[in-house]
Amino acid sequence: MEKSAIYHQPCSSYAYPYDKETMHLKVRSKKDDIQSVILVYGDPYENVKVGENYRWVSGRVEMKKSATTSLHDYWFIAVKPEHRRLQYAFVLTDSNGASVFYGDREFLPNDQVTFSVPDNFFKFPYIHEVDLFKTPEWVKSSVWYQIFPERFENGDPDRSPENVLPWGSKDPDRDDFFGGDIQGIINRLDYLKDLGISGIYLNPIFKSPTNHKYDTLDYYTIDPHFGDKETFRTLVQEAHKRGIRIMLDAVFNHIGSKSKQWQDVIENEQKSVYKDWFHIHSFPVRDGENGNFDGKPSLSFDAFGFTTTMPKLNTANPEVQNYLLDIATYWIREFDIDGWRLDVANEVDHAFWKKFHQAVLKEKEDLYIVGEIWHNAWNWLQGDEFHSVMNYPLTKSIINFFIEDKIDSSQLISSLNEHFMKYSRNVNEAAFNLLDSHDTARILTLAKGDAQKVKQALAFLFAQTGSPCIYYGTEVGLDGGNDPLCRKCMIWDEEKQDREMLLFTQKLIKLRKDYQEILSKGSLHWLETNDSSAIGFSRELGKHAIIFIFNHGDKEVSVSLDEAYSYTDIWNGKELETKKVDVSAQWFAVLKRGV
């Protein structure tokens, strides 16, 4: 038995309350090393008298192996402690029949002496409903559509900058303007509804000199090239009428160098009332002086990266906190937005995000909070900061297999299992899942123009638990390399659109909505395909199951199904006549298992 591989941590993603009466428990072991895991559990205060002594009342139940990676097995169980308290330990038995007790004092003999000492057990003292990881229920059924406003549609040409270029006349450079605005989004709400979209994530819309708006000048003002507050109010209201939610981008890590606060610091230096709003090491802070050259690590102040136009805000300063929290609640209170996406969220202190969480949810209890974090984000996902992060680790795994052909199906399964096990099920159910964004090359370009690969990747994304997001234009074949090429103008000329991709996307979104509950909450079970280019899994909830089989190879594959059930090909809308499904090369099958 490889004890060094065995791991459990109370009050973490290995032991957490899923709801007000259910505990989820996980334990990790070396791959193929452990034959069985028994959970021993009970209320820490429940004892019965046996002669002159008292014996703790406990139960035993076998855990299921729920996931396997290249290195580890993960064992899982859900239990409902009657009094919402839990004392527990694990008895692990290896393939040779040797067993061991694993608890709060680590490894001990599996005997009565060990079981008689309460301190040997792990504890979960009490399930407090107020401490649950709670996410807005509506998120789980949402399909998002990310819009870079300057490039979606020019709906009000009178608002366009003087140097505006004809729509789609060239590939964008970093400083180009094409006139996209909020009215353009309003004009296309019916298009988005027909597509099946239920949430719009907007890149920044506040006043800024750039096309991307990540260098904010005034958080209380809509950029005049985009519209005004009444235009934005109309957008929210009209979106809501169509069942579409609105999530804005909050850039609170840094502010634009043309903002009044930073300009005051430049002018007044140490006498500025705003000098403590920033992380300043020495004066002056003007460009070209005191080491302040864009892109150089010699800056005399902290910034986003080493970008002189984006000085970093000191979010530990109470004045800055009050300023940003008022902004966050203002747009909820006055315009009824439904979510905040938080830019560069991992570089802002946890203390501020906890205050942010409390403030915005007090204003609107079902608001969705998404942090921009590209890596393992477990310490931001404890229930008191974010509901989700932009799920780029999932993105990368999907791209590695379906787009770049860098890994085989077993490696994809290992990568995904490792990712899902890092978080609680609550977190995974509300994850913000995506294939590309304004910060990455577009998925069609990564696929070198292979639309079939993109379709497979999209279908796989939509089959995962969480909330999928489409980057504008993916549904009509918009391509583009890394920034700024990933921010091309939306294609509205139907003759230039990939209409087959559009119909495919509509069909995929409908499938997601038709089976939303099982895709959001169903347990994941990988299927044996006997092919390194094929991957299959079922999503199961109660007696119901949806099965997905993806063939990423260049030859047709056949997968045998459980003979005990009947199956319906729900992608093609027909009954499956045999207990075997044939999947064409570079395609997939979606089946509904009969009860």
Automatic annotation (TrEMBL):
**What are the recorded GO MF terms, alphabetically?**
hydrolase activity
Question: SUPFAM superfamilies under this entry?
Answer: (Trans)glycosidases, E set domains, Glycosyl hydrolase domain
Q: Which UniProt keywords apply?
A: Glycosidase, Hydrolase
Return the Pfam families for the record. Alpha-amylase (PF00128), Alpha-amylase_N (PF02903)
User: Which CDD domains is this protein grouped with?
Assistant: AmyAc_CMD (cd11338), E_set_CDase_PDE_N (cd02857)
InterPro entries reported in the protein's UniProt record: Alpha_amylase, GH, GH13_cat_dom, Glyco_hydro_13_lg-like_dom, Glyco_hydro_b, Ig-like_fold, Ig_E-set, O16G_dom_2
User: Which segments constitute the Glycosyl hydrolase family 13 catalytic domain?
Assistant: 146-512
| Family designation | Belongs to the glycosyl hydrolase 13 family.
PANTHER family the record matches: ALPHA-AMYLASE FAMILY MEMBER, MALTODEXTRIN GLUCOSIDASE
- Full protein name: Glycoside hydrolase family 13 protein
